[in-house]
Amino acid sequence: MDNSDSNERSGVSRKPNFLFILIDDMGWRDISCYGSEFYETPNIDRFSRQGMSFTDAYASCPVCSPTRASILTGKYPATVQVTDWIGGPREKGKLLSAPYLHHLPLSEKTLPKTLADNGYRTWHIGKWHLGKAPSTPENHGFQRNIGGCYWGAPRNGYFSPYDIPGLEDGPEGEYLTDRLTNEAIELIQKEDDRPFFMYLSHYAVHTPVETHEHLRRKYEQKARDMGLDKVKTFEEGECFPTTMKKNERVVRRLVQSDPVYAGMIENLDWNVGRVLEALEKSGKAENTVVVFYSDNGGLSSAEGSVTCNAPLSEGKGWMYEGGTREPLILRWPGKIAPGTTCSTPVTSTDFYPTFLEMAGLSLMPKQHCDGESLLPLLTEEGALDRDAIFWHYPHYGNQGGTPASSVRSGDYKLIEFFEDGRLELYNLRQDIGEEHNLAEEKPEIAAELKRRLAQWREKVKAKYPEPNPNFEPWQ
After folding, report:
1. Cβ–Cβ contacts within 10 Å for residue 177, how many?
2. How high is the mean pLDDT in each 10-residue block of the chain (475 residues)?
3. Could you tell me which residues come within 8 angstroms of residue 361 by beta carbon, excluding any fewer than 6 positions away?
4. Which of 73, 36, 26, 44 has the alpha carbon at shortest distance from 351?
């Protein structure tokens, strides 16, 4: 007897489960299978060999809340009007950062809402940071919420007591990433024939940077063994472009060598391994799509500058590749060939239509209007019907970045900076580090991408920063 026929007659759904593992502030090169020689991630590396890894995957913003909104809505941050991290001040420099929504609108039919309407159990575990009540996970389609609140980071640190709203404190000294993984494993182990969507949204590796003492000591020794204690670690740069930080300078990390951050990465990797093992032991792995992804680039130029994204330029809060290019790995047994790689540019708006198509559900183009299903790429049976990806970050980043928009089409990426109208054009295949500005050498390409960028901003009714009438230069 055909198993699918038997399952249909017994009422057992064959829709796939979804386990979405979202990391906070993990850089593109913070995993050894993506090039790190200092951090150790054997479990994530093993997982990458079981699915497809994307070399040119992007977050739709260089900071967290907008990207998270785009994942859940299938819309660019500029479309949904959540363009900066929620709760942030309106930074002032030469410009005044643009206004934006400090919550995910309840009018959005989010991915978990749609999946719940189609028989899925929907679970949110960890960081939310998309607004205070009523804009909570429970009101956006999640039937269970563990530790998701308006906080953008664990304010009391990674060791219990956490005092995180919606998460009961564990034993003193319990580590938050371990605890959230325990909660995920407990849900996975529940016997239920209905499919599930688990959004395992870790607070790690966001600041405060804290790890277990034995891991810190391990990586201090590793740094010495690699000679990293004898190389230049930081480079002091320009003054910050905002009045709040005008007396501080951007400090860029030049090499991955922070032992505490490395310990956080190793612990996170161990926990990824634990949840994948639990999925396997539950017998659900064969029918589960697993996604591993990060919401923005690594923190490399401020607030401790704990990682280095080289060869990418800059990091979190910047419109360069280090701010938006992310690790992305997907596994779907029997559907995605193991050990495969894809170099097509994709972005965070694409998950919504991808999951709907994987689940055999009708697409909702008015909702996920800025996303494309990745299924043709994942099955290696086709290409995307899209030739450009857009970003709009009309804000000053805490890390030194200034307001800008950008577009990538093919190998070319154009950035338009709002302070002075400067254009920067890069061929990312030839110049992944964005070191050689081609705007004057290739004016026709620059002009065409600028035109398309302006046209897109008009279409999504993008908000712009305004001149600061009280600006007094200090640099």
Report:
1. 22
2. 35 80 98 98 98 98 98 98 95 96 98 98 98 98 98 98 97 98 97 95 98 98 98 97 95 98 98 98 98 98 98 98 98 98 98 98 98 98 96 97 98 98 98 98 98 98 96 87
3. 114, 118
4. 73
Q: Tell me how far apart the alpha carbons of residues 222 and 147 are, in angstroms, rounded to a whole number.
A: 34
- φ and ψ at 319, to 5 degrees? -85, 5
Would you state the structure tokens that stand for residue 25, as one six-digit string?
């502030």
Cα pseudo-dihedral 26, 288, 15, 189, rounded to 10: -110
Q: What is the 3-state secondary structure (H, E, C) of 358-412?
A: HCCCCCCCCCCCCCCCCHHHHCCCCCCCCCCEEEEECCCCCCCCCCEEEEEECCE
Helices (H) and strands (E) in the chain, counts: 12, 17
In this structure, the strands spanning 196-201 and 249-253 are unpaired
Nearest to 128 by CA among 102, 103, 153, 148: 148
Helix (H, G, I), strand (E, B) or coil at 314: coil
What is the model's pTM?
A: 0.96
> At 153, which amino acid appears?
A
Place of tokens 């003492």: 213
How many whole angstroms separate alpha carbon 301 and alpha carbon 298? 9
Q: What is the DSSP letter of 170?
A: -
378 touches 332 (CB < 8 A): yes
Give 126's DSSP letter. Answer: E
Number of residues in the chain: 475
Cβ pair 151, 126 in contact under 8 A: no
Q: Report the C-alpha gap between 294 and 60 in whole angstroms.
A: 11
